[in-house]
Structure formats: structure tokens, C-alpha cells
Automatic annotation (TrEMBL):
<dbReference type="InterPro" id="IPR003879">
    <property type="entry name" value="Butyrophylin_SPRY"/>
</dbReference>
<dbReference type="GO" id="GO:0008270">
    <property type="term" value="F:zinc ion binding"/>
</dbReference>
<dbReference type="InterPro" id="IPR013320">
    <property type="entry name" value="ConA-like_dom_sf"/>
</dbReference>
<dbReference type="InterPro" id="IPR018957">
    <property type="entry name" value="Znf_C3HC4_RING-type"/>
</dbReference>
<dbReference type="InterPro" id="IPR001870">
    <property type="entry name" value="B30.2/SPRY"/>
</dbReference>
<dbReference type="InterPro" id="IPR050143">
    <property type="entry name" value="TRIM/RBCC"/>
</dbReference>
<feature type="domain" description="B30.2/SPRY">
    <location>
        <begin position="231"/>
        <end position="427"/>
    </location>
</feature>
<dbReference type="Pfam" id="PF13765">
    <property type="entry name" value="PRY"/>
</dbReference>
<comment type="similarity">
    <text>Belongs to the TRIM/RBCC family.</text>
</comment>
<feature type="coiled-coil region">
    <location>
        <begin position="141"/>
        <end position="197"/>
    </location>
</feature>
<dbReference type="Pfam" id="PF00622">
    <property type="entry name" value="SPRY"/>
</dbReference>
<keyword id="KW-0963">Cytoplasm</keyword>
<feature type="domain" description="RING-type">
    <location>
        <begin position="16"/>
        <end position="57"/>
    </location>
</feature>
<keyword id="KW-0862">Zinc</keyword>
<keyword id="KW-0863">Zinc-finger</keyword>
<dbReference type="InterPro" id="IPR001841">
    <property type="entry name" value="Znf_RING"/>
</dbReference>
<dbReference type="InterPro" id="IPR043136">
    <property type="entry name" value="B30.2/SPRY_sf"/>
</dbReference>
Length: 427
């Protein structure tokens, strides 16, 4: 509105008081009033004696004026703005501006919808995670409480056993005491009535008391106290660890599934690649093309976790394979071929072998990799087992039977000769 009224007053300012149109060739008189050149000339020619200003009536000695070029330009501009072409262009400009804003509005609304959906998703997943964490802690609490009950029951049983023994000792001694009491009374009686007692009877009386009571060797209270001392939290934590599920599974390599170039430690927990292959019996379970091996343990249900030492190897692949993978062919490790794996290449490049591969950027190079297989959820998750930081999760994992999968890759002389090891939880 302000723009409009400004526009109008500008137009009024630029309007000639004689013809009431926009100035044409505006000129300025000495009184500073403006008129069209032809208007003022016409006005003056129309017979007035002394030239004067039609607005303020000031009279001038001669018919003189000054051409006002700046004003001419301004008038031209205002005139152009009023033209049909200009109006049309302006309308088009406004329409374009409106359309652009409407389009942006649609974009903002769409983004707002997406963000609100994200908020809902976040809340939902947070709730699920919250429940999951509380469930797991409830399990831990239960395990801990059960351990506590078991330890206390053990203590109570020990106490009861010792008490029973000590009570038996007390009872035995009490019986002995009463036997001795009777003996003493009898002997005292005999003493007081020496003349009436048969000497024979006195002679047959043994000097030593006839009653004997066997008690336990000296009870050791200190030993009893010591039996429940030491680093109790650590002792109980170790006991508790046995009940945790899943705890790291003690896997071993299955040499019969291994490529002929792979050699194993005696306990089948370490594997390395040697370029010269010793002769091995061929069987359909053996990988023929790549230096791969599976573990002897396979899974078709439940949740399983295992840890693999990769140390400072320069390349490796590990994860999960479907039992049914083609072991005779050289195939790409990807979910479509029944492999859900992580790989290291060139010492520092970590990849998840999805299709296409996803580059991972762990905070530090993992030396021990944890693999978590959840058969029911259909997920395979990888961790840096050093600090249990999450590396990657495969979803929609599906197979009839799953095998822990390993590839040492080639040793490349001695560069990558460090064995890959299956970690067993040792406490
Ligand atoms: Zn005029
Ligand atoms: Zn004037």
C-alpha cells in the first residue's frame, strides 16, 4: 500500500499543472515550478503581457526557463512503468515469484512431513531399544540374584553341616559327662562306705574312665572365615559369566572345509596361508578356489557370538556364509551369493561386502573382530571386540544353516602371514 501511494504522489509530482499530464520536455521557471515546455510557451503566448508562473503568479522579466534533463529522465521512467507492456512484464514477474514460493512451500511441507516421520521413527526405535536394554539388564539382574542365592545357599549348607557336627560333638560330650557323673557318684559312694563294699568290686574297677567320646579335630574358625574372603566381586563375576548368553563361542576351524593352502595349529584355532600346498584329500566341502575355511560349528537357530583375532594382518575376510555356498567356484563375497562378510584390503581399507560395497571408517584398526549372528532376526553384526564398538550390521540375512566364515587371504611373502585366530574366552 505504501508503495502504491508513493507511486501515486510521485506521479502527481511529475504532472504538469497546465495540461494535467505527465511532463513532456519539462522545464523549470525561476520560481522553481515545472511545466511542459509547450504548455508554458502556450500559456505565455496566450496573451499575457508579462510572463508569469501559472502556479505562484510570480512575474518574470523575460520568457526564460531552464530545461530539466534529470526530470525528463524520471518522467520517461514513470511513463514507461504505466505502459501495458510493462504492466504485463510486472504481472509475469509477480506470477513467477508466486509460483516459485508455492513450489518452495510444497518442498518445505514435504521436508517437514519427512522430518516428522523421522521423529516418530526415532521415538519408536528408542522405545524398542529401551525395552531391549531393560530386558537384557533384567536377565543380568536375574543371573546375579540367582548367583547370590546360590552362594548364600552354599554358605548356609556349609554352616548347617558344621553346626550339625559341632552339635553332635556337644551331644556326645554330654552323654560322656553323664556317664562320668554316674561313675563319680558310684566311686564316691564306695569311698564313703568302704567297710560295706566288697573288696572284689573295688579291685575290678578300672582306674581309667570307661567312657570315650570322639569329637572332630579342633574346629578352625579362621579357615571357615577365610573360605569366603578374597576378591569376591571378581569371583562372583566369573561365576556369573558362565550364565551369560550368548557368550563368545569357542569355535574351531574345520580343516576339511579349508583350501589346500591353509595350515592349522594343532588345536585348530589358528590358520595361515602357505603358497605351497601339501596334498590333502579332496571332498565336496572343501573350498577349491579361494583360501577360505569354515568353523566346525554351524548354526541354524538362536543367537551366537564369536571373536576372531586379525592382529596386524594386512588383508582378510570374515563373517558368515550359508552352508550351501558353492565351494568349487570362485564367487564374489556378497549377500546374493550367501556371504555376509567384512573385509580388510591394503592394510587400512575396511569394507562391508554388501552390493555395492560400503566403506567403513572405524575409529581405530580392529585387532579382534566380534561377529554376532542372530538367526531369528536375520542379522549379522560386526564389532571391534577391543571396545565392542559397532562396525556394521547386515539385515535380511537368510539361509537354512549358517557357518562362521574366514579367509586369511594370501600371505604375500611374509606381509600377511600372521595367523588368523579364533579367540576362546579364557578366565
Ligand atoms: Zn503540460
Ligand atoms: Zn511559480
Amino acid at each position: 500500500m505504501a508503495g502504491r501511494s508513493q507511486d501515486r504522489s510521485l506521479r502527481e509530482e511529475l504532472t504538469c499543472a497546465i495540461c494535467c499530464e505527465l511532463f513532456s520536455e519539462p522545464v523549470m521557471l525561476d520560481c522553481m515550478h515545472h511545466f511542459c515546455k509547450t504548455c508554458i510557451q502556450g500559456y505565455w503566448a496566450s496573451g499575457t503581457r508579462v510572463p508569469s508562473c501559472p502556479q505562484c503568479r510570480r512575474e518574470f522579466p523575460s520568457r526564460s526557463f531552464r530545461t530539466h534533463y534529470l526530470l525528463s529522465g524520471l518522467v520517461e521512467k514513470v511513463r514507461r512503468c504505466g505502459s501495458v507492456g510493462h504492466q504485463h512484464r510486472m504481472r509475469k514477474h509477480l506470477e513467477d515469484a508466486l509460483q516459485a514460493r508455492q513450489k518452495e512451500m510444497e518442498n518445505f511441507l514435504q521436508r517437514k512431513r519427512v522430518t516428522q516421520e523421522d521423529i516418530c521413527g526415532l521415538m519408536k526405535v528408542s522405545g524398542e531399544l529401551n525395552f531391549k536394554i531393560r530386558t537384557q539388564f533384567a536377565c543380568l539382574h536375574q543371573i546375579l540374584e540367582e548367583e547370590e542365592r546360590a552362594v548364600l545357599a552354599e554358605l548356609a549348607q556349609k554352616e548347617a553341616q558344621l553346626l550339625a557336627q559341632l552339635h553332635r560333638d556337644v551331644h556326645g560330650l554330654e552323654e560322656g559327662i553323664s556317664v562320668l557323673q554316674r561313675d563319680i557318684e558310684r566311686i564316691e559312694q564306695a569311698l564313703s562306705k568302704m567297710e560295706e563294699v566288697s573288696l572284689l568290686e573295688v579291685e575290678s574297677l578300672d582306674i581309667r574312665p570307661s567312657v570315650r567320646v570322639e569329637t572332630q579335630p579342633a574346629f578352625d574358625l579362621e579357615h571357615y572365615r577365610d573360605s569366603c574372603s578374597g576378591p569376591l566381586q571378581y569371583i562372583f563375576w566369573r561365576r556369573m559369566l558362565r550364565s551369560i548368553c550368548p557368550a563368545p563361542a569357542p569355535l574351531t576351524f574345520d580343516p576339511e572345509s579349508a583350501h589346500p593352502n591353509l595350515v592349522f595349529s594343532r588345536d585348530l584355532t589358528a590358520v595361515t596361508e602357505r603358497s605351497r600346498a601339501p596334498p590333502v584329500p579332496m571332498n565336496p566341502r572343501r573350498f577349491r578356489q579361494c583360501v577360505n575355511v569354515l568353523s566346525s560349528q554351524t548354526f541354524d537357530s538362536g543367537r551366537h557370538y564369536w571373536e576372531v583375532w586379525v592382529g596386524s594382518k594386512t588383508k582378510w575376510d570374515l563373517g558368515v556364509a550359508a552352508e550351501a555356498v558353492d565351494r568349487a567356484a570362485k564367487v564374489k563375497l556378497c549377500p546374493e551369493n550367501g556371504y555376509w562378510t567384512l573385509r580388510l584390503r591394503n592394510r587400512t581399507e575396511y569394507w562391508a561386502t554388501t552390493t555395492p560395497w560400503v566403506r567403513l571408517t572405524p575409529r581405530r584398526a580392529p585387532r579382534k573382530v566380534g561377529v554376532f549372528l542372530d538367526c531369528r532376526e536375520g542379522t549379522v553384526t560386526f564389532f571391534d571386540a577391543g571396545d565392542m564398538s559397532h562396525l556394521f550390521t547386515f539385515h535380511q540375512v537368510s539361509a537354512e544353516r549358517y557357518c562362521p566364515f574366514f579367509s586369511t587371504c594370501f600371505s604375500d611373502g611374509s606381509d600377511n602371514m600372521e595367523p588368523m585366530r579364533l579367540c576362546h574366552l579364557s578366565l
